[in-house]
Amino acid sequence: MICEPVVSVAAPPIPPRSAAEHYETAEAAYAIGDFSRALTGYQQALALSDKPELNFNIAQCHRQLKQWEKAAFFYRRFLSSTEDENLIRLARGHLETVERELALERQAKEHRRLRATSRLTVVSTPPGAKAWAEGRVQGTTPCTLPLVPGKQTVTVRLPGHGEARRRFVMPPDAAMLWEPALIPELALAQRAPSWLFEQPLQGMLCQGAGCPRIGSGPVTGFSGGFTALRFPRAVALGHLRPTLGWGPTLMVDAVTSGDAGGPDFASFKTLMGGLQVRFTAPFGEPARVLASVFVETGFAAKWYEQRRDWVYDDDEDDQGAYAAFGFTVDFP
């Protein structure tokens, strides 16, 4: 059997279609109601040609497919690129229809959103209070607040009254009622004073070449004390206003280095007691932040001792008046 080689001949390349051919395909598809295929053909023709009428044809396909936003875009694009009065009148008529349909679609979308949103009706006593939710004022009581389902904190405030705050767990598409009673604030002379107690306490440990040292070994110790401030009104409840408070303060610092039972040991102790005056002001709505500045003056005493190889080579006591100032930020 004799085998002869088979020679394959490559098919000639298919030339790319022209804009006119894409246009004819689109016209045929549009005539039988295949608007998706017609849209593809017009888009391919527009990629090869800059005829403004193709924008009109593309807009027609989007309108037939109820793609209102895209239809409005291409109608406007066509109107900005043609001077044919007949086509302009036709395109404007279609654009008005599309814009009406687009408005109805947006209304329906908003209606669906509201149906899925939880609603909280707030009726305060007395009325006229601002209702805060989701970080902003949502209305004035009585009012209904549209809230995202889930955990929500709602705050109601009315000048001259204490605030009302409550946390809700809002189910989807639910309606709830809240009727807070706002208590009038007393005049300043009738309010009981409030006290603020602070008790800072911290431990210290420092190791390394950059640490301050009294003797050999790491520096350890603690710092602690208390401050009791009297304010003429409550600073963490109701409507906060700038408030001035005063009261006693006491602070103890004790730092040691080395082994207390060994030959090398050093200690440094400080006792400070005095009077602090603090000016506190609230910031933020509805979450409160208390920023304060203070000045402090009083009496301080210190004790310093150091021994090396069981020999005390330095021992010093000192006392006198001191003054200090600073600021604090509290998140009640």
Termini separation comes to 101 Å
What would the principal axes of the Cα set say about the shape? elongated
Residue runs with pLDDT of under 50 for 5 or more positions: 235-239
Radius of gyration: 40 Å
Give the strand content.
35-45%
Largest sheet composition: 7 strands, antiparallel
Total strand count, please?
14
Q: Please give the share of residues in helix.
A: 25-40%
Would you list the SSEs in sequence order as H and E? HHHHHEEEEEEEEEEEEEE
Broad structural category = alpha+beta
The total domain count is 3
Count of helical segments?
Answer: 5
Give average pLDDT, whole number: 80
Fold and architecture overview:
It is a single chain. With 332 residues, this protein is of the alpha+beta class. It folds into three domains: 19-114, Serine Threonine Protein Phosphatase 5, Tetratricopeptide repeat; 118-178, Immunoglobulin-like; 188-330. Helices cover 25% and strands 41% of the residues. The chain has five helices and 14 strands. The strands form three sheets. Strands 8, 9, 10, 11, 12, 13 and 14 form a seven-stranded antiparallel beta sheet that branches. A four-stranded antiparallel beta sheet has the order 3-2-5-6, with no helix packed on it. A hairpin with a 6-residue loop joins strand 5 (150-157) and strand 6 (164-170). Helix 3 packs antiparallel against helix 4 (68-79). The longest helix is centred in the N-terminal third of the chain and has 32 residues, at 85-116. It is elongated. The model is unreliable at 235-239 (pLDDT under 50).
